[in-house]
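Researcher: Structure for this, please.
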Amino acid sequence: MPETPLQSVRELKGFETRDTGLPFTSLLVVRKLQPKTAANGNPFLSAEFGDRDGSFLCTVFGDSPAYEVLRTSGEGSVVRFEGKVDFYQGRFSPKPVRMVVVSEDELTAQPDVIESLVEIAPEDAAALWAELNGFVDALKHDELRMTVRMVFEEIGGNFRWSPAAVSMHHAYRHGLLEHTVHMARACQALRPLYAEVDPDLAMAGVLLHDTGKTIEYEGTLATKRSRRGILQGHVVLGYQLVRKAGLKAKLDNDLLERLEHIVLSHQGEPEWGAAVYAATPEAVFVSMIDNLDAKMGMVQRLLRQAGDTDQFSERHFGLNAQLLLSKPGK
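Model: Predicted structure, token format:
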């Protein structure tokens, strides 16, 4: 690896408009690439670069030397980004000067470099996994507990490291585990308020609702959807996992149908990916908790990634708003 000092995304976002034009060098993952065409017909790339501290957007025009490098390397590649500080509409959006793809051999030789590139959940993954297993063990209904345990046995370690999304919420390593445990905590706290909701069925639904994402997503440094993820989606993939395990565990037909319904409806709206609308007390309950934690996960990540002087975040698609980053009273 080159010896030139490298700057993290957090350091880059610390630049101010008075720093425009200053050179910098960073080691970054190409998270997203969107080919576009300008009004004059010239091609350009809308690119997202990131490391474990966060990410930023950058426009790479067709006449830039970096254009062909990125077009060839694609999403998930690691690049040495040499650029100059610049801003667009008040947001950090640098001008690329030179882009060099870092080979897998170089990365493999320095594991600490890979760790600096991968965003991870802020909570300890081992502790989260132990907590999740505690929720499984606490299920009183034997066949429900067996069904949940069989699903986790089938998907193996993928659940422990998988993100919960490509970009929307909990979109980082261990994000799916974090999201599920947060939902289980909320389920445990809120369920006593609603006597109509069966405790075991609701908790089983929470634990299993997103298990299909272990199949939907793939990638080590940048997350993308797999072939099955594109063709079927995590709702259907999760339904398949639950049905297979439920039949094997000899779960009562009515309970199995209700558990499958939670998975099929947890996205809330068909335009958000739900196969059906929630139509049981437990399905409505799980769907609302999922939406709550997804939204708060977006908020938490924006707050973690905020610069010291940032007042508002960039507009977040999931929140449909810019988030006020300062604490109350400040």
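Researcher: Any notable elements?
Model: The mean pLDDT is 89. The beta strands are 23-37, 43-51, 54-61, 78-84, 87-88, 91-92, 95-101, 217-218, 224-225.
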